[in-house]
Automatic annotation (TrEMBL), chain A:
Its EC number is 2.5.1.87. Signal peptide: none annotated. Its cofactor is Mg(2+). It is an enzyme of class 2 (transferase). Keywords: Endoplasmic reticulum, Magnesium, Membrane, Transferase, Transmembrane, Transmembrane helix. GO terms for cellular component: dehydrodolichyl diphosphate synthase complex; endoplasmic reticulum membrane. Belongs to the UPP synthase family. One of its GO terms (molecular function) is ditrans,polycis-polyprenyl diphosphate synthase [(2E,6E)-farnesyl diphosphate specific] activity. InterPro entries: Nus1/NgBR, UPP_synth-like_sf. Gene3D superfamilies: Decaprenyl diphosphate synthase-like. This is ditrans,polycis-polyprenyl diphosphate synthase [(2E,6E)-farnesyldiphosphate specific].
UniProtKB/TrEMBL annotation, chain B:
Residues 48-75 form a coiled coil. It comes from Rubroshorea leprosula. GO terms for cellular component: endoplasmic reticulum. GO terms for biological process: polyprenol biosynthetic process. SUPFAM superfamilies: Undecaprenyl diphosphate synthase (SSF64005). One of its GO terms (molecular function) is ditrans,polycis-polyprenyl diphosphate synthase [(2E,6E)-farnesyl diphosphate specific] activity. Catalyzes cis-prenyl chain elongation to produce the polyprenyl backbone of dolichol, a glycosyl carrier-lipid required for the biosynthesis of several classes of glycoprotein. This is Alkyl transferase.
Length: 239, 250
């Protein structure tokens, strides 16, 4: 091997080692991020324990009147954990929430077949189910309702678009195809990531979205804290 | 880009200075994005809801927007140094003529840039975008249908009214609506950052954010810096595998 080839080989080796070092640093960085979140998780657990024991005065009373409609997003895989879901709903009922929407992407309406459930029999508690098909697919159905209106009116006279294609008409069309849902005030995401996983876009305009962590680690204290934080928010609605 | 007015109050600045500080923060953030190779950046500059503010504030924001849009097409601007194509996304008819014309000029001037894309949402709300897309899809479908059936002496038109067979037999389909969205020029975002600790989307990208990581740092927008950007990227990387898996499951 001549000198030039040896230098090239050396450069190649240095490059590979350099790449390896960068990759290792990247992984190390992410290990530190994970450790940070682990620490945050421990602190949250402790705080949640204190809240549920009533040790933190701030969270003792909640102005629940501000929370008219709450939505929960769960993973479709977690939707089978009926006991956990019912426990969560019982916590919400205990805190004073009256209207809840339970959303998972695939629409595994696990509770619909759940009979003899005291919670669901309670008069002041209404529970609605939603899935991904209540989002974009519902808008498609509503669009077809508006299309038929537009088509029928265009036969008589054109230029009706301003009256047919409005947000109010779209909301009416969505009701007509069975998507009556209100806009939730608060959305709690029980999953590994803060993401609404396709909750119906037409209903998410001003909804506060809070990430609660995975369902298996749900805590009553964290729920109270999330609702408390919601009640302290002041929205300007663009003003 | 939330927190400009709060920043202005905090620093005892005069009216509107918070927004100017916000603009400087935006330029820094865009630089970080394009240096790191982020190809599509969307910013929420002005919502249709913001027209509800006082006329003085709206006018001052419009003047600032016009000034900055005109600045974008200058030779030394960030869009030229990074080869950024600019789109103005929203119901531009709601804007005053000088701003609308400036936006049209900027879009034309940057049309040949292809390294990265900047989408500026102005006079935008998600609901308005959805309704507009539905309207365009319906108008297009009506033209298609009229053309298709006009040669069949009205027989087809009568049948159209009765066409309510299967649930899947829709004339206007999802793909028709999505191609008319203002945001159809870009893929769905991977991460949405809203500053000042606000946890709602406020009518921003509701349609496009199904599998998007939502990040809400408490920092006010004019105070955002590289460390916040880096933290956002690290968080996104931590969650990327999960969200990608979810997206593919659909």
């Amino acid at each position: 091997m001549n000198f030039k080839e040896e230098v090239q080989l050396l450069h190649g080796c240095i490059g590979q080692v350099g790449n390896l070092v960068v990759k290792l640093l990247w992984h190390l960085q992410h290990v530190m991020v994970s450790l940070w979140y682990f620490g945050i998780g421990m602190a949250d657990s402790l705080e949640s324990y204190c809240i549920s024991k009533g040790l933190l005065r701030r969270y003792k009373s909640l102005h629940i009147g501000r929370l008219r409609y709450l939505a929960i997003v769960v993973e479709s895989e977690d939707a089978h954990q009926t006991a956990k879901i019912i426990e969560l709903l019982e916590w919400l009922a205990a805190v004073g929430v009256k209207q809840v929407c339970l959303y998972d992407t695939e629409g595994k309406n696990f509770l619909e077949s759940h009979e003899n459930d005291i919670l669901l029999d309670q008069k002041n508690f209404t529970l609605e189910f939603a899935s991904f098909s209540d989002g974009k697919e519902a808008v498609v159905k509503a669009a077809n309702v508006l299309f038929m209106k537009y088509f029928k009116l265009s036969a008589s006279c054109r230029n009706q678009e301003d009256q047919i294609f409005t947000e109010a008409q779209m909301t009416e069309a969505l009701k007509a195809v069975g998507c009556i849902g209100l806009e939730p005030d608060l959305l709690l995401v029980y999953g590994p990531v803060r993401c609404h996983l396709g909750f119906p876009p037409w209903r998410l305009r001003y909804t506060e979205i809070i990430h609660m962590g995975p369902l298996k680690f749900m805590r009553y204290g964290s729920l109270r804290k999330a609702i408390y934080k919601f009640t302290m928010v002041r929205q300007n609605y663009g003003k | 880009m939330d927190g400009n007015r709060r920043y202005g109050k905090k620093q005892n600045l005069k009216e509107g200075a918070g927004h100017s500080a916000g603009y400087s923060a935006l330029m820094s953030m865009l630089r970080y994005c394009y240096e790191l190779g982020v190809r599509y950046v969307t910013i929420y500059a002005f919502s249709i809801d913001n027209f509800k503010r006082s006329s003085e504030e709206v006018q001052s924001l419009m003047d600032l927007l016009q000034e900055k849009i005109e600045g974008l097409i200058k030779e030394e601007s960030i869009v030229n140094s990074y080869g950024v194509r600019v789109y103005f996304i929203g119901n531009l008819q709601l804007l005053s003529e000088p701003v609308r014309l400036a936006a049209d000029r900027a879009m034309l001037a940057t049309a040949k840039n292809s390294k990265a894309v900047l989408l500026v949402c102005i006079a935008y709300t998600s609901k308005n975008e959805i309704v507009h897309a539905v309207q365009e899809a319906c108008e297009e479908k009506l033209d298609e249908v009229t053309e298709m059936y006009s040669s069949k002496d009205g027989y087809g038109l009568i049948r159209l009214g009765e066409n309510e067979e299967g649930e899947r037999d829709y004339l206007v389909k999802l793909v028709d609506i999505e191609k008319h969205m203002y945001m159809a020029v870009a893929p769905d975002p991977d991460i949405i950052i809203r500053t000042s600790g606000e946890t709602r989307l406020s009518n921003f990208l509701l349609w496009q954010s199904a599998y998007c990581y939502l990040y809400s740092p408490s920092v006010l927008w004019p105070e955002i810096g590289f460390r916040h950007f880096l933290w956002a990227i690290l968080n996104f990387q931590q969650n990327h595998f999960y969200l990608d898996k979810k997206r593919k499951q659909l």
